[in-house]
Amino acid sequence: MAKKSILIKEFHHKELVKISKTFGSQYGDLIESMIIYFKKTGINPVEAINENPAAMVKVLDKRIVSFLKVQERDILKPLRSEVFQHAKEQKEQFSTLLKWVQDSIIKINNFDRDRTITLTEELDKLKGELNKVNRKIHKQQEAFMEIADLIDTKNKSGIKGTLKSIFE
Hints:
Blueprint: H1 10-23, H2 27-41, H3 53-151, H4 159-167
């Protein structure tokens, strides 16, 4: 490593000595660290304002907090309200839909019950009519048998047997 000399004013040399003692570092190491720091951060020491970095960070922190509060007020809170309102509307729509479905099921069940009652009544009427028709047919069969008895008293012609076989 080649040693190089730097010419600086007496005041700045005294400041370098103080800083070097404060950080517990030799002059050369401290200057190398300064160069690396300026290179990494992009800070130009010639243009630097003589402000305390902690105070600058506080100002920046206040600006960030202020920015976040504005974002919260203008974006996040309205968005949150919209989400809650949308959820409330969906819940109401679901309740309405559920009520509609329940009402529809009740109507369908009532319609089915009424239809079953009507069909049962119609079936009972048809059974009654069928019984009447069966009784009339049975009476007609009896009448035919009586006529057959009168026509053929000794069953010589076989008409009575023929009628029996037809009616069975």
